[in-house]
Amino acid sequence: MSDLADLTVSEAASSIRRGEATSLEITNAVIARAGVTESHLHAYLTFDQDAARAAAQAADAALAAGDDGGLFHGIPIALKDNMTTRGTETTAGSKILSGYVPPYNATVVRRLQDRHAVILGKTNLDEFAMGSSTENSAYGPTRNPWDTDRVPGGSSGGSAAAVAVGSALAALGSDTGGSIRQPASLCGIVGVKPTYGLVSRYGLIAFASSLDQIGPFARTVGDTAALLEVIVGHDIHDATSYRGDVPPISTALETGVAGMRIGVVKELSGEGIDDEVAAACRAMYEKLAAAGAEVTEVSLPASETALSAYYLIAPAEASANLARFDGVRYGLRVDGDTTEEMMARTRAEGFGPEVARRILLGTYALSAGYYDAFYGQAQKVRTLVRRDFAAAYEKVDVLVSPTSPTTAFPIGERTADPLSMYYADVCTIASNLAGDPSGSIPIALDSAALPIGFQIMAPALHEEQLFRVAAEVERLAEFRQRPELATSEVRPA
Amino acid sequence: MPVDIDIAKVARLARLALSPEKLAEYDSQLQDILEHAERVGALPTEGVPPTSHPLPMTNAFRPDEVKASLDRDEVLEQAPERAGEYFRVPRILGES
Amino acid sequence: MSGWEAVIGIETHVELQTESKMFCGCPVRFGAEPNTTVCPVCLGLPGALPVPNEEAIERILRIGAAFECTLVEGSLFHRKNYFYPDLPKNYQITQYDLPFCIDGHLDIEADGEEVRVGITRVHMEEDTGKSIHGSETGRIHDAEYSLLDFNRSGVPLVEIVSEPDIRTPEQARAYAAELQRVVRSLGVSDARLEEGSVRFDANISVRRAGDDFGTRAEVKNMNSLRSLQRAIAYEIDRQIALIESGSEVVQETRHWDEGSGKTSSMRSKEESEDYRYFQEPDLVPLHVDQTWRDRVFAGLPELPAVRRHRIAATGVDRQAAAVMVEAGDLADLFDEAVSLGSEARTVGNWLSGDVVAYLRRNETTLADTHLQAEHLQELAVMVGEGALSSTAAKDVLARVLAGEGSPRAIAEQHDLLQISDTGALEAEVEAVLADNPDVLAKLQSGDLKPIGFLVGQVMRATGGKADPKVVSELIRNKATAG
Ligand SMILES: [Mg+2]
Ligand SMILES: [Zn+2]
Is B18 in Cβ contact with A348 (below 8 Å)? Predict the structure, then answer.
């Protein structure tokens, strides 16, 4: 592969510094790649070539002047369209925000710009990040680059698909119940949800405030860790942002797993998990043991109820977070005789069915007479989930499982049945409830040539352990396949 | 156990003007989801405190300092309906 | 209303005058151009997050401490969910079951009676924006549209909820007035009703003595202490009349109309509000430890009631003390002058009488005059020495207020100094006695009644500058020596 769009971030960064390629050349290659892939994938909602080229030229000039922003200097990356970008339309995949141009930048956007990263555009997502397939976008679905009849996962499906095909070298997504890890798994790339509070949420259009975290996507574990290092750190604009020192992240990538205690989550290894997925994960457990890790089975009893708790807590928070979309100050307005009517019509028209469903669900779970049985009880279950993890981490350093119970499923297969769609998050949700870091690393293709992702979970603020194991899994899996759409030789019609 | 939902009331609280057909559809979907969600009641949670936050943090404050506000035109440009220096809305039914 | 008793509780909202808003860095500024003190946070833009203003929290604790509340060690912010166009997020960040301050009280005096009003809670929340209704009356019912200004959105708002311990409109007024004084004395807000930086809502019910609480109505929109008193009086009468005619009081919110002097129903709720409170997930819990709580109590200024008692104890008339404490700055000046050694009663009378009248007449404030404690001290000394008559002192004081200079300089310049030098007055007294031999004879015979007449003559002869005490003394000496 000679196409610059196929470089990893670290390869691209060294090419730039060795003078073999400029940021502009790399950016142009990625723009050209998107020119080929976008018509098949629809990974982007907004793709601003001119702004990207200008940013790349500015990055080249800055570097020439001795101002080096680090590994991501001049690297073209994509942002999930639920992060606000000043002057660039930000819709969260919703009709209710069609045409909305924010007057401010999210903190992560500012941090990337400060390091001279090149922002290509905004990627597609399930509306307000609610979904596991990117089919819930008001602007049409994103397709899986490995099989365009299938979903890329969600809700950060656009970011995952773009990185998988090289229409971005890396990307940011957000993860509330698995929305980074599950699409990373379904698209065959690396994606990490950091510890809650490690990355500022300021400027992330909220879905469920106590669960949402922004995190990185890249094609390698090292690039993913490096992107996380750019965006972490306390932010005065986010009261839930972690105030301690940033924990080590990429400091143990070469250390290996010898002597590490790895726990296989019992509840996520049998029933409900696709046979091929389970088998691929088992093979990896064995390889890790062979590499010197002490692999044991660990039980997280409350994790089976975690999904139910999640589908009360997340909609409840969402019902309040999405109340601000009312047709008064920005976005869509559908007229009415009174303000009350205008608001109710605007919201009914502006929100898609999944969003409306979750708003109703959350409103109900919080309403008088039902709070204790639903929302209140779900928060207690959240405590039990955290206790399970705490007990498990007494015995092991990290926990592992499949990321997704299945590989990519066909577009349309689950849209009529919300519960079957919710089940796609069964392996990923517990980490969000606990607030712990968790990542997905591609390990194999199934018999239909669809990627299988391997999930690693670590205790809060122990990203170093997560990435240490992830790097070893990457080495052991030797997963180098790329979807056909990504290879420069193949240009599907 | 069937869950008791007054879907029309929930939709009013959530400010969603939904047709009767839509309401019926959501009603049955919420039934399914909530029957599943009721599992949260099956775990023994006596004496278990709720977790509303993953990080054990307190007192995240900011100093009392003025920061730049937004440019009014940039703000009002996003308004579906603006009247001079104001956002404009139709008749309001009740006083708050 | 014989046999009837009113039960009144008052909810007070006080806007804190911090530099910046409760959850963002926009300035707190009354009267700014519409929609200019707004940002992503207070406009509820997608992605914005609230971060609490530490100073606002310090101030609410001070308010709670002033009411002798328990300052709660672990408290929380909640979301109160309701849709309204002036509420940008369509939820208000407020406190629910764990407010900052609970169980306090405020002692008031009304109709000559001391009443202790319980303070249930003092909690922190954010203010809403303002709607301007596009109708001739400005009332919402007649408006075809409304305009929204979000400058006020997110201004720190402290809600003070009283127990239903108030029984009369007069007590309600006294409670509101004393609460304003307390808040002002803490330097946290100017608590002005006209500018809306303090707002009182009254919960009113009536019952026959000894019965359980009746159904209550909440009355809003009182823009002065007088209208608070009137609105409550009206509402009590309305409820009694309603019950006596066989009807029932409806639980509702009512609007006070100053013009008509009546309350009217604001909305009849089809269903009770369901605010779906839940803990604000964008904020972390609050922890006010013992050290912090101790520091707040230790840092409290002298509260108005204590100050009034202390000043009255110096011999100043109670009413005069109340006037000075009400104004605050007058009492500060009083304390300063007294600390310089001035006679308390004299200075108290000047400040509560002459100075207040001067400020009112000239529509100015104490800070804008040139009066200083040193002036009062000098003036008091001059009166004490007899260098200035009390009448002349008032004239000098007015000139000091107007910035003409120090009392002594003014008195000299305007020739207001009193002649109390015996030598200088002797000749005048001799002359008057010589002119009035009959009167002198009366005095000498032991009838001292005409002494006043003679003093008056000397005063006239000196153009009022003679010290009457000295003159009277001189005449007395002459008569007995004669
Ligand atoms: Mg309130
Ligand atoms: Zn603001």
Answer: yes
Return the pLDDT at C392: 86
The one-letter code for the residue type at C99 is P
For chain C, which residues make up each domain, given as ranges?
4-294, 304-413, 422-481
Ranges of residues in chain C whose predicted pLDDT is under 50: 270
Residue A165 contacts by C-beta under 8 Å, 6 or more apart in sequence? Answer: A33, A37, A41, A43, A145, A482, A483, A485, A486
A320 phi, psi to nearest 5 deg:
-85, -45
Pairwise CA distance, residues C480 & C339, whole Å: 43
3-state secondary structure of A352: coil
pLDDT of residue A492: 45
* Helices then strands, each counted (H, E), chain C: 16, 16
Rounded distance between C-alpha atoms, residue A145 and residue A157, angstroms: 10
Phi and psi of A297, rounded to 5°?
-95, 140
Q: What type of residue is A304?
A: E
Give the span between the Cα atoms of C285 and C46, in whole angstroms: 23
Instruction: Please tell me the predicted confidence (pLDDT) of residue C471.
Output: 86
For the record, the structure tokens of C230 come out as 């009137």
* The pLDDT value given to residue C417: 82
CB–CB of B75/C43 below 8 Å? yes
Q: How many residues are given for chain C?
A: 482
B76/A478 Cα distance (integer angstroms): 53
In this prediction the ipTM stands at 0.97
pLDDT of residue C272: 64
- Pick C83's closest partner by Cβ from A92, A205, A323: A323
Residue-wise pLDDT for B14-58, tens only, equals 999 999 999 999 999 999 999 988 888 888 889 999 988 888 899
Query: What is the distance in angstroms between the CA of the first residue and the CA of the last residue of chain C?
Result: 73
- Are A87 and A13 in contact, with CB atoms under 8 Å apart? no
The rounded distance, in Å, linking the Cα atoms of C27 and C15 is 13
Under 8 Å between Cβ of C161 and C168: no
Look-up: residue for tokens 């500024």?
A: C29
Classified by CATH at the fold level, domain B1-43 comes out as Histone, subunit A (1.10.20)
Between chain B and chain C, the number of residue pairs with CB atoms below 8 A apart is 131
Name every chain A residue with its beta carbon within 8 A of the beta carbon of C48: 104, 202-203
Identify the CATH assignment for C422-481 out of 3.40.50.1970, 1.10.10.410, 3.90.226.10, 2.60.120.10: 1.10.10.410
- A409's CB contacts (< 8 A; 6+ apart) are A133, A150, A151, A424
Separation in Å, CA C372 to CA A165, C279, C320, C351, C363? 79, 52, 19, 11, 19
Q: Which stretches in chain A have pLDDT values below 70?
A: 1-2, 488-493
pLDDT at residue C65, rounded to an integer:
98
Confidence at residue C2, expressed as pLDDT on a 0 to 100 scale: 73
Please indicate whether, in this complex, the C-beta atoms of C274 and A367 are within 8 angstroms of each other: yes
Residue C153 token pair = 């959105």
C-alpha to C-alpha distance for A360 and B8, rounded to whole angstroms: 10
- Taking the CA of residue C269 and the nearest CA in chain B, the distance in Å comes to 10
Number of C-beta neighbours around residue A279 at 10 A = 14
CB-closest option in C51, C85, C278 to A237? C51
Question: Could you tell me which of A363, A481, A455, A424 has the C-alpha nearest to residue A135?
Answer: A424
